[in-house]
Amino acid sequence: MQSANILLRKIVRSSVLPFAAQHGMKKDLFPLSRTLSLSLCLKQDKSCETSEKLDLDEWKKVMKSGLQEEVSEMVSEPKEISSLAAARETLEMWRLAGRAVPENISEEQLKTFMECPSKSAKKKYLKYLHLKELHKKNDKRKMDEKRKRRLEAQDQASKTDETKKSPFICMWSSTMDKAYNWRAAQSMIFGQPLVFDMSYEKEMSLREVTNTVRQIVLSESCNRRSVDPFHIHFCNFKDDSLYHREFIKQYGEAWGKLLITVTDQCYTEIFPKDKLIYLTADSPKVMKTFDHDKIYIVGSMVDRSIKTGVSLARAKRLGLETAALPLEKYLLWSTGAKNLTLDQMMHILLTLKDTADWKKALEFVPKRKYCGFVNKPVKELKKTLDLINTLKLGKGQEEVQKQFDKSYPRRYKLK
């Protein structure tokens, strides 16, 4: 009898109950299965009846929970889909209203947007996504522009290579190079000396030494192409120094063929002291005219920290005359230190040597450092500005007005 009961339970579990759960008839069939099992157990002991009742109750709970989970999953999926669609419609409405909304948004970002606790939090999250999307677009645009410029540069380089291969261009460049070398060779015999003081290696870092050598290379190239070049001297130049290694990196095999004088001696041992003038921005004496009989010294130093007084102290120790360019006399200075690069100094000195025109020479000063050229000395302009400020403040207006009328014509009179 017990084996028959087990077999009947298996048949009910495998066939009847799945069919009832599929068609929604679970509640009607539970009493039938319970009566069948109870009728079979009436002929058995009371212990068997109790165990069978407990098994059926547990089975009923399990079946109910399984069906509820399936139904909840089927109901939750359409709800989630409908809420995502509603959120997308809300985003589209905000986009049409002109708010900062990203064009493309993923499902994860949309779920995060829906989980925001307030409307302001949702707006902030959408603004963050919008800015992130704009940054990505901007980076992509920059990359495309770089790629485009690189391709254009490659095309231009290919075109220049083709022009360089032209026999006429090659002949012209070689002829001009010979002419420049001839001028540099003549300057070594008849030219005015220009000294680069190479004794500042200890005051600079490796990066500053590299920048100094690059500026000197530009200066040498500019001097070689000028009409009347200087005879360049590298004084206090030590072999196997940082300067030496950087020059070999820059020039390569051409370093030994340069038409310049390189020596480890000091300039005071080569030239007479009464002819030497040390050009430094810290000098109290201002250079008025370019003297063709003097020998100018330029300190080979690039100092990012603007170490004032280093070159002036060196010149004073050696008992040399110093001079500074008249920047304040001709330029209305704006910002920055009055220290110029070595190649700018070379351009200024070459222009003064050829034309003796300060206005033309000081055009090589970077335009970001000054507002323009002045016709009057800067001291007079400062006095005028002080008078104008005093008149505006109303302090001693009558006395200042009289002084202003005496110093300046009527057309400058303040209204």
TrEMBL record:
Region (Disordered): which ranges? 138-160
What are the EC numbers?
Answer: 2.1.1.218, 2.1.1.221
Which reaction equation describes what this protein catalyses? adenosine(9) in tRNA + S-adenosyl-L-methionine = N(1)-methyladenosine(9) in tRNA + S-adenosyl-L-homocysteine + H(+); an adenosine in mRNA + S-adenosyl-L-methionine = an N(1)-methyladenosine in mRNA + S-adenosyl-L-homocysteine + H(+); guanosine(9) in tRNA + S-adenosyl-L-methionine = N(1)-methylguanosine(9) in tRNA + S-adenosyl-L-homocysteine + H(+)
| Domain SAM-dependent MTase TRM10-type residues, every copy | 180-372
Classification via Gene3D superfamilies: 3.40.1280.30
- From the Swiss-Prot or TrEMBL record, state where the protein is found: Mitochondrion
Q: Which GO terms describe its biological process?
A: methylation; mitochondrial tRNA 5'-end processing; positive regulation of mitochondrial translation
Q: Which residues form a coiled coil?
A: none
Q: Which UniProt keywords apply?
A: Coiled coil, Methyltransferase, Mitochondrion, S-adenosyl-L-methionine, Transferase, Transit peptide, tRNA processing
Record-level Gene Ontology MF annotations: tRNA (adenine(9)-N1)-methyltransferase activity; tRNA (guanosine(9)-N1)-methyltransferase activity; tRNA binding
PANTHER family assigned? TRNA (GUANINE-9-) METHYLTRANSFERASE, TRNA METHYLTRANSFERASE 10 HOMOLOG C
Q: What is this protein called?
A: tRNA methyltransferase 10 homolog C
InterPro entries, per this entry?
MT_TRM10-typ, MT_TRM10-typ_sf, Trm10_C_MTase_dom, tRNA_m1G_MeTrfase_euk
Q: What is its main location?
A: mitochondrion
One Gene Ontology cellular component: nucleoplasm
Keyword check for Nuclease: no
The organism's taxonomic lineage, starting at the top? Eukaryota, Metazoa, Chordata, Craniata, Vertebrata
